[in-house]
Amino acid sequence: MFLINCPYCGERDQSEFVSGGEAHIARPKQPTELNDDQWAEYLFMRKNIKGIQFERWNHAHGCRKWFNVARDTSNDKIEKIYKMGEQPPKL
Amino acid sequence: MKNKYSIFSLIKNAFSNHENWQRAWRDPEPKKEYDAVIVGGGGHGLATAYYLAKKHNLTKIAVVEKGWIGGGNTGRNTTIIRSNYLWDASAGLYDHALKIWEGLSQELNYNVMFSQRGVMNLAHNLQDVRDLKRRTHANRLNGIDAVWLETDEVKKFCPIINTSQDIRYPVLGGTLQKRAGTARHDAVAWGYARGADEMGVDIIQNCEVKGIKRNGDSVEGLETTKGFIKTKKIGVVAAGHSSVIANMAGLKLPLESKPLQALVSEPVKPIIDTVVMSNAVHAYVSQSDKGELVIGAGTDSYVSYTQKGSFNIVEETLKAILELYPIFSRMKMLRQWGGIVDICPDASPIISKTSIKGLYFNCGWGTGGFKATPGSGDLFAHTIANDEPHKLNAAFNINRFVSGDLVDEHGAAAVAH
User: What is the pTM assigned to this prediction?
Assistant: First the structure.
């Protein structure tokens, strides 16, 4: 239970947002060339970090825009919010 | 040798004000080396150690636990036990556990208060009806007792349910597994701990794993807060923290850890003598022997290790409970808590060897691991002892995420994940 500062709308309750899971998992550029191990890595394997995790969020009950969040999963404290397409910050 | 618990030992100890009961398990310091070390002293981990010692004749076994035994999800769940899963592999796995539950108190000489009060799953829309009927048929083909109940039969089985067709999510019927029920969660951990300790298993509490030492492709031991422990076999049963342990060995798992909440009410006289679960509105309720209503809610959508969870999840669940059971409208809730559940993409567990020799994982039980405790321990012990899975857990290997042979129990398992 925490607040998220949407880069477009400002600070709102987390219940307005939908978590999109781990960020920066790039869609394969050449899907036909991937083997089964690489597909499993892309589709299923997750870092599931206890600590600062980079993740995607969507303001589903607001502007409906996607953005990235760096959040400490051990205490739900948000360290940084940055836009889609930007590189993860160094923390 | 442990003294046997019985009515006579209870009377005998009453004369000394219950001050001279024998210790249920020792509090040993870790030895330098073990044949196998289990990481995680919850129900599943303690059961694994118990069956390793009992059925596979391993003598030097340790369970290392970072907190106290049974203090994680074992002590945080809503204690529901059932085996009415859709797919053959799941039905085999969960019914294996249910069969062990039926004789567990006798086997452990420890009352786990297993109560086969039945579990009813409600249908609230036409798709629910189709899904639940399909599951009932699948269950019966697998020899699992399951019946379909029409709305009036639901009302007869649990009279306090509001079966009015005017509510937002009307009850259109339900399934019932009569062999299903509940057990006392703490007693399960304590019973297995006592049984394992008697066979010489060292249960080491307040001992956190800090690293896994590897020699090439095999394990050599564990770095812990109580020093280095040498071992060739490590069984990890760390639930929500499985990914953290996997990371120490350089492995990645297909898991996401999320808070799952539950709450209990003030104690009242017996009012509901079964377990009722509702998939569509995601609320389930039973009554403990103390009289509290035990209510389960859903998971949060985000990864978190905080053991808290969001208020809006509890609010949604209580809204649904009140619509289904108007009689509870004035009850006060006493406590609310969260546990961290590790969820697989197919909502089925992993009981498996890994690419590292001597490293085994039992994880991914998600929101429904308690029911499987005895079966999970039995099959994981088999997997560790033989370095091969038992036929009942062969489908639950970690390689299924590469081969694509998933056991998809999302929604099909009677509860939305």
Answer: 0.96
Asked if B308 reaches chain A (Cβ–Cβ under 8 Å), the answer is: yes
Q: What is the per-residue pLDDT for B282? A: 81
Q: Would you call B252 and A40 a contact, using CB atoms and an 8 Å cutoff? A: no
Write out chain B residues lying below 8 Å of A37, CB-based: 402
Q: Does B290 touch chain A (CB under 8 A)?
A: no
Chain B contacts of A48, Cβ < 8 Å?
A: 243, 253, 255-257, 303, 342
Residue B348 forms contact with A (CB below 8 Å): no
The residue of chain B nearest to residue A47, with distances taken between CA atoms, is: B252
Helix, strand, coil percent values for chain A (each to nearest 5) = 15, 40, 45
Is A64 inside any structural domain? yes
| Number of domains forming the structure of chain A | 1
ipTM rounded to 2 decimals: 0.95
The pLDDT of residue B415 is above 70: no
Could you give the 3-state DSSP secondary structure of residue B403? helix
pLDDT of residue B417: 45
Interface of B with A in 234-263 (CB under 8 A): 241, 243-244, 247, 252-257
Full residue range of the structural domain in which residue A58 is found: 3-25+35-83
pLDDT tens digits, one per residue of B25-42: 999 999 999 999 999 999
Q: Is residue A91 part of a domain?
A: no
> Domain with A10 in it: what CATH number?
3.30.2270.10
List, for residues B309-327, the tens digit of each pLDDT value. Answer: 899 999 999 999 999 999 9
